[in-house]
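Hi F.,

I've been meaning to write this up properly since the lab meeting, where we talked about keeping a consistent format for the predictions we share between groups. The idea is simple: the sequence comes first, exactly as it goes in, then the structure tokens exactly as they come out, then a line or two of notes. No screenshots and no reformatting. I'm using this chain as the first example so we have something concrete to point to.
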Amino acid sequence: MSEYKTLAHEGLWKNNAALVQLLGLCPLLAVTSTVTNALGLGIATLLVLVGSNVTVSIVRNWVPKDIRIPVFVMIIAAFVTIIQLLMNAYTFGLYQSLGIFIPLIVTNCAIIGRAEAYASKNTPILSAWDGVMMGLGFAAVLVILGAMRELIGQGTLFDGAELLLGDWATALRIEVLNFDSQFLVAILPPGAFLGLGLIIAAKNYFDERQKAQAQPAAPAEKTERARVTSLT
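Output, unedited:
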């Protein structure tokens, strides 16, 4: 159980792919203009991570070390193709919205990195758990950044949720603020950089605060008093 807890802590917080390793920033910054886009890409990345990790772990003993990276990329590409076809069939609107960033999951360094660093050295069950935690950590950052940008940019949350969840999800749309026009700085890429910087700063602040609280208080220094004897 300690291994599972360690993987959960690493994937969700301590070694988060987006906030600590700064991997997969291209789709992270490009498609997080709304919560719906962020959630769709987060789910797709999570599924590819789990599938590729398990497959790499299963075949790790039969893949020569000299060609392991090309084999891992082919495995990841196969799962990305499956996800792409499923999104094209069942969530076509979201598929069009995400565009080129779905096939670009193949080149996501976070996925290739986990396949090489963990899945190729551990059992399928542990590799699957690692993929789930890393995928959830990455998806959480996507959703938080998407919520920030959508709320500041157009004053809504879950706009276009029906593209991912179906027609019933139109009721999920929340209009928090009423804007006459969109705040383009938040919608465009500069807003993504600013938002990600704020999230990273918040994480570093909490880490430093927790580290300071964990350190024992320094013992108070004793002041020695000098005794002066006067001679008369």
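Notes:
The chain has a mean pLDDT of 89.
The two ends are 77 Å apart (CA to CA).

If this format works for you, I'll send the rest the same way.

G.
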